[in-house]
Amino acid sequence: MSSAQSTDVLVVGSGFGGAIAAYHLAAGGARVTVLERGPWLESQDFEHDYKLGSSYTRAFDFTVGDGMSVLGGNCVGGGSVVYFASMPRAPRFVFERHGSIGRRMWPKAITRATLDPWYDRVAEAMPVTPQGWNDVTYAGGLWAAACDHAGRTANPLPVAVDTGACVNCNWMMAGCRFDAKKSLLFNYLPAALAHGARILDLHEVQRIERTEHGGYRVHYETVDAEDYRVHTGSGAIDAKLVVLAAGAGATPVILQRSEAALGPMPHAVGRYFSGNGERLNTAVLNEDRVAEVLGLSRDEQRAYAANHIGRGPTVANWDRLDENLPEFSRYSLEQLYFPPGLGTILAQAAHASGPSWFGRDKKEILKRWSSWLTIFTMSEDDNEGVFGPPPPTGNATRISQQMLGRGNLRYDPTPNTLRGWAASDAEVADILGRDGLAEVMPWTNDVVGAYTVHPLASCRMGDDPATSALDDGNELRGHPGIFVTDGSAIPGALTVNPAMTIAAVAERAMPGIVRAAQERGIRVTYGAPAPDGATSGRRGVLPLTPLAAG
């Protein structure tokens, strides 16, 4: 096209980092346009099946890399639409981690204490609430009972779920059609729209270049609503300021592809990727032993039935989240329900005489699917992921009509990461293997490599320009006016579910982004309440932002 549309601020992506930016900038008076690669799905669109073409294949992006595969959201609302809504805050020790670079990874300005007011803003906006034991699913209760039997503790997770509206349908990963899960479709995004923001779905950003007036031109291609391999058109939008929030698997690829036009990128763009140290184990429970040892029972004499008995993770074990333990030995363990498909493929059969993830022994444990319990590890990995040259378009070469692509991520776990996984595997086996409760085996890495649902750190923030792509205000080094607010900005693994921290870091970045927008001639202020009008969170952070409300 010969000319581009224009806006004050162009936001790429509508997950936590994008939605929060869109809301605050629009509420402050800026003209905001959001480009989202995926479709715009609402409650009535979420289907309770796992057929190809259903809401889950439309709303997910599964990218197979070399040694690591990434599962993320691909829709308006991003990962919040398909996440399990677990919203813990990161432990204090996380912000002091060094990893393998020999210095503190996080900027010195960010600690758990300095981030807590921004966590409070998110908790008010979503909202995030604690769960009591009466809110815990039976699967969570079994995990808690097993932890107690093994001398460990268990904790209900804080969640962004209206537990009164939740019907325990167990389809959280396909989107919540009962409006119980508080995704971004219920807070930041509708509030941004109410203040005049535009959200354009099925718009995949390809690259960014500078304009002659000192702003940026963002090039996109429109995507077919049914076949994501098909691009139906192209265009560009000029903006004075750009906020990248396409996710840790896509933001670095956009920047890599933009380097020819924008100039050299910081060394850390596309490096130091973290899979949040994630690992999965499947326990095949012995129903009789569960009843005898743990004293649990259900209707019809069943001790446990995994399939369709409630929502995602409700109970975690945090005994290993101890700041006095050595780095790479700390992790959390969560019970979760993982639906048929990937879980049934990657689960291994204990004591298999041949291959452990397919064959006769695997067939036998599949007969006992209703007795499975999946335990999710989040540990301290070594930021070993590196992105290779970008594909011609998008973040991956699309293999199927929806969902599946081949990406350019290379991941080779270091001994540090492997030791953490081995320790957590042993812990899970000890807890659930006691007194014959279950046979436990980790998911295999032989099929799609390691895997993560919480990609982080591929454009991370920090104080050291040699090992970070962003400064402590989330601005891209050497490229003023480009900010990154998604999971790629988080410096490393968090040992817990990261959504709350991604959102808090994005909230913290907003006063500085507003200030940068003002300096670029955008008429905008900072100081909006929570999306529903609540103001306690705002009162907590305004003293920290004296220059933002000009």
Written overview of the protein:
With 550 residues, the protein is an alpha/beta fold. The protein has helices at 16-27, 55-59, 79-82, 112-125, 138-149, 188-194, 251-262, 287-294, 342-346, 360-366, 415-433, 499-519, 536-541, and strands at 5-12, 32-35, 60-66, 68-73, 155-156, 198-200, 203-210, 216-223, 231-244, 278-285, 315-317, 331-336, 372-379, 386-387, 396-398, 404-410, 438-442, 450-452, 482-484. Strands 1, 2, 6, 7, 8, 9 and 19 form a 7-stranded mixed beta sheet that branches. Strand 15 (396-398) and strand 16 (404-410) form a beta hairpin. Helix 1 runs parallel beside helix 12. The chain starts with a strand and ends in a 9-residue tail after the last helix.
Concise description?
The chain has 550 residues and is an alpha/beta fold. It is 24% helix and 20% strand. The strands form three sheets. Strands 1, 2, 6, 7, 8, 9 and 19 form a seven-stranded mixed sheet that branches. Strands 3, 4, 14, 15, 16 and 18 form a six-stranded mixed sheet that branches.
